[in-house]
Structure formats: structure tokens, C-alpha cells
Amino acid sequence: MSLFRHVDYLFWGALIFVLILALHAKTAHERRHQLKSIFADKIFGRISDSYSLKARKIKDILFLMTLFFTLLSIAGPQWGTEFAPIGESSGNLVIAVDTSLSMLARDLKPSRMENAKLMLKSLLDYFKDSRIGIIAFSGKAYTQCPLTLDGDAVKYFISVLSAGMVPGKGTNIAQAIEKSVNTLKHVAGEKTVIILTDGEDFSENLEDAIKYSVKNKTRIFTVGIGSVEGELIPITNKKGKVIEYKKDKNGKTVVTRLNEKVLVY
Known about the structure:
Distance between the termini: 45 Å
Number of strands: 9
Helix content: 40-55%
Shape: elongated
Structural class: alpha/beta
Largest sheet: 5 strands, mixed
Radius of gyration: 34 Å
Strand order of the largest sheet: 3-2-1-4-5
Strand content: 15-25%
């Protein structure tokens, strides 16, 4: 959104203001010159005092300021948020991304999470005319990027996705579905949710969440990230070097596997 609605008016307004300013200065000079030619200097001084040059200057300044802001307003200055109508046929897509620690597994190189991010960026090319939002979830679901037509903003939010960024242990796909559906609930047009996850779900109300999406006319597609054979979950240091592998509360090394049954629920 530009600062002025009518930029061409701004140019012509500036030109008119300069011309009037020059004409005003010329007129004032000629008026003063005529008075001095008629009256002697002593008499002219008395006339000037009674005429109040100071009041005249204030009047001139107020006139010029009024003219300036009038011409500026004609150019249509604007700022803030610009609202544009979007038709019923416009698509609305929410992509829910699993950010649980199991997405660090490297059965897909370089990791499940990095593969999910690459897939997300590829999807953007197919949905250029749709509003897109990003939901990050693990034990809880949060809005990473609200619905927007700004592709650059979506790419930025994708780039900062990382495993473990959302507080809460485990993976709650049901909450991710509910959060996604609520994001789309009050918008017009087609409503679609894509869930990128390894399917290791710990939610207890997945069936209710699916019914909720059907009630709100929202289609859900799932994309599995990972392998059914499974892989260990690496724990790395700040330099990205693996220092150990995730263990459960009993000290047993955790193996994470793609749960296809949940994804075709």
C-alpha cells in the first residue's frame, strides 16, 4: 500500500502550491511598493504600524498552511491496514507441522523436520492464490503464521520451524486439528488442512477432532514423515553434533516409527 492514493495529484498539488506561493509573494511586494510610492517614508511607517504587519503575516501563514494541507488531502494520504475483498472461490489452507522431538530422527536425510520444511516450501508454489497459515504442534498447538496471502511471510515462518520449539511432551494431533479448524472456521471459501507428522499420536480425542472438522466443512489431508522401520532420536549440542540418543523414563533408547494407521484414520 502506497503512502498516497493518488500520487499524480500530489505532483500537481505541489506545483499549484509553488505557483500560488510565488504569486502571493509577488502581490505582497507590489502592494508594498505602491503604498511607498504614494506616501512619504514617515507617513508610510505610521500606516504600516496601524495596518499591523504582524497580523498580516499571521494571516498569510494561516492561508498558506490551509492551502498546503488541502492540496495534500486531495492526494489521499493513507496508512495502516489495507482490506481487500476475497471471493468465495478463494482457497484457505492451514498446514499443521509436527515439531515434537521425534522429528529430529534421521531416517529421512538430513532429518524429518528438514524434509517437512522442504515439502512446505514446495507446496507454496501450488497455492499461490490461496491464503496460507502455519500451525506448529507437539503436545500443544500454536499458530506459527496466521492466514495470509503474503508468500514471503509464510516462507519466513517456515524457515524458523524447529523440533522442540513448542512446549509440551508427545504429539497431540487432535489439538492440531482443532486449532487448524478454528483458524479456518470464520473465513469464506474452500477450507483445507494438511498435517505433516510422523503419526506418533498421544491424543485421546482424535475421533472427536475429525468430526469437528467435518462439521465445519474442512477437508484434512495427512502426509507421513518418517519410515516404518524407525530410527533413534538424536540429541545434539549447539554445534549440531550428536552427543546421545533420547531415552524413556526407564533408560531405554527410544525408537520412533512412522505410524501409518493414525494417518489414514
